[in-house]
Amino acid sequence: MHLGKYFSCRPLTIVVSLSLLAALGHPACTIAQEAVETAKVDRLVQPYLDSKTLGGLSVGILHRGKKTFVGYGSSKSASAAKPDENTVYEIGSITKVFTSLLLADAINRGLVKLDQPITELFPSDLSKPHASLSKINFKQLSTHTSGLPRMPSNFDLSNVDNPYATYDPQKMFEFLHDHRLTREPGKKTEYSNLGVGLLGYLIASKQKTEYEALLKEKLLAPLQMNDSVTTLNEKVKPRLAQGHDSDGIDRGPWDFLSLAAAGAIRSTAADMLKFAEANLHPSETMREMFDLAWKEQQPGLTKDDRAMGLGWFIAGDGHTRFHNGQTGGYHSALFISRKLDLAVVILSNTATGEVDRLAEDIFKMVAGDPVEPRKFDTAIVVPEEVMKRYVGVYELVPNVDFTVSVQDGMLMVGLTGQQTIRVYPKSETLWEYKVVKATITFRQDKEGNWNELVLFQNGIRQRAKRKP
User: Cα–Cα distance between 3 and 457 in angstroms, integer?
Assistant: First the structure.
């Protein structure tokens, strides 16, 4: 179980509920009346600004060939500069869709096969993989069914401000040399930054190039996504929005080495709508690539799993594709439906999964559904002396503990091996995370001692007892 946001290019729980999307059968609204649509977007965005849930964001809408861009808030901490369609953000795990398109291109050109064992492309000059990895194929890397963990165990957890910066190919292949799969590939879905990072590395190596160069050659240059990069340069760096965590604290950009294919792209709303347009109406030269990635490749293995294309999650309506992404100071969400000829992208300089809910609401609104603005709870103030009664260490399972502390008047909760995160009060005893959809509750025993923490996430309750 993971609660940390800093080592997941994507939030741990996709909070969108597109299985409930009622857009089917509705006549799609036109965006030709741009002022009207902008006002409707304003109405949905404003509560996020008023509640300080989001600091700055760029919204892009593509509907029936017409584009609308709107910027809100501030792109910098100490400036009133409003973001626009050319403001640069980290898009995090939406990068995985680009990586899977590179896989689709390699398949169409006969370089690899979907069911080909990945170990056939492992470089000979680095550590050989554990024998169990020979059962993994390329489709499983793209659809998170490979059996590889979310992150490798030799990943450096100490550099929370730039965690991927020093994880090089040698470290990745050292892990793969020692790692024995604990289950058969294709039997369970487990979101894996390692798996997609490895995918991009192998596809680029097969073509004797680096991931960044291959990405530019096959996708960014042909689509004229000229402001999209994996390494910041002097052209885009001045337009990079200042990132913030969910508490509004400044966070810097992330750098990537071997796992770049999992989350390294920086982009703009203007470029992301170019990408969306290519997915909606691919050119003849790129159609095979986009259609292969768009097609359902992996049904959900449980009732809680989403079906997937290559890289894409498929919504419950069957026709909407989506992905989101998060780094230390940014969050992104992209929704696309060929049936509705509609795409919505939100890029934000606040690392919070609340962006997903907003993007879904805008998508539904443009599709013709009635959507009410989000209502945020009035802030509850809990005295510091009440918070201090919860301070301590709570054992979830052997060697995995929750550590609760009070820092600068905030209740902070850390899980072994992960970042300490602020939680917010719903009451004096019930607290919620903003970075993931989860709550914790503190409980007393019969003697009045606060001796238990209860985590509720994904419909499951887990109890952790306070250590003496």
Answer: 10
Rounded CA separation 445/451 (Å):
7
Within 13 Å, how many C-alpha atoms sit on residue 122's CB side? Answer: 21
Residue 462 and residue 367: Cα distance in Å, rounded?
A: 39
Q: Is 453 helix (H, G, I), strand (E, B) or coil?
A: strand
One-letter amino acid identity for 429?
T
Q: Are 180 and 224 in contact (CB under 8 A)?
A: no
Are residues 193 and 288 located together in one domain of the fold?
yes
CA dihedral of 440, 462, 92, 66, whole degrees rounded to 10: -80
Last residue of a domain, one of 303, 337, 367: 367
Q: The whole model's pTM is what?
A: 0.82
Alpha helices in 207-253 (DSSP H): 211-215
Q: How many CB atoms lie within 10 A of CB 392?
A: 17
Rounded CA-CA distance 243/241 in Å is: 6
8 A C-beta contact, residue 139 and residue 88: no
At residue 361, the 3 state secondary structure works out as helix
Nearest one of 362, 347, 191 to 265, comparing CA atoms:
347
Q: Domain containing 411 — which CATH number?
A: 2.40.128.50
Judge whether 5 lies within some domain: no
| Domain-ending residue, one of 367, 395, 420 | 367
As for how many domains the chain has, the answer is 2
Q: Is residue 268 part of a domain?
A: yes
* Rounded Cα gap, residues 62 and 46, in angstroms: 21
Residue 179 belongs to a domain: yes
Q: What is the pLDDT of residues 122-156, one digit of tens each?
A: 999 999 999 999 999 999 999 999 999 999 999 98
Closest to 33 measured CA to CA, from 3, 9, 68, 7: 68
382-432 confidence digits (pLDDT tens)? 999 999 999 999 999 999 999 999 998 999 999 988 878 899 999 999 999
Residue pair 5/436 in contact (Cβ under 8 Å)? The answer is yes
Which amino acid, residue 264?
A
Is 379 contained in some domain?
A: no
Longest CA–CA separation in the chain, Å: 72
Domain that holds residue 243: 18-367
Residues 138, 128: Cα–Cα separation, whole Å: 18
* CATH number, position 35: 3.40.710.10
| Buried-exposed string 297-321: b where 16+ CB fall within 10 A, e elsewhere | bbeeeeeebbbbbbbbbbbebeebb
- Residue that has been written with the tokens 């953000």 in this structure: 89
Cβ atoms of 41 and 5 within 8 Å: the answer is: no
Q: Which residue in the block uniquely carries the two structure tokens 């550099």?
A: 159
Helix (H, G, I), strand (E, B) or coil at 42: helix
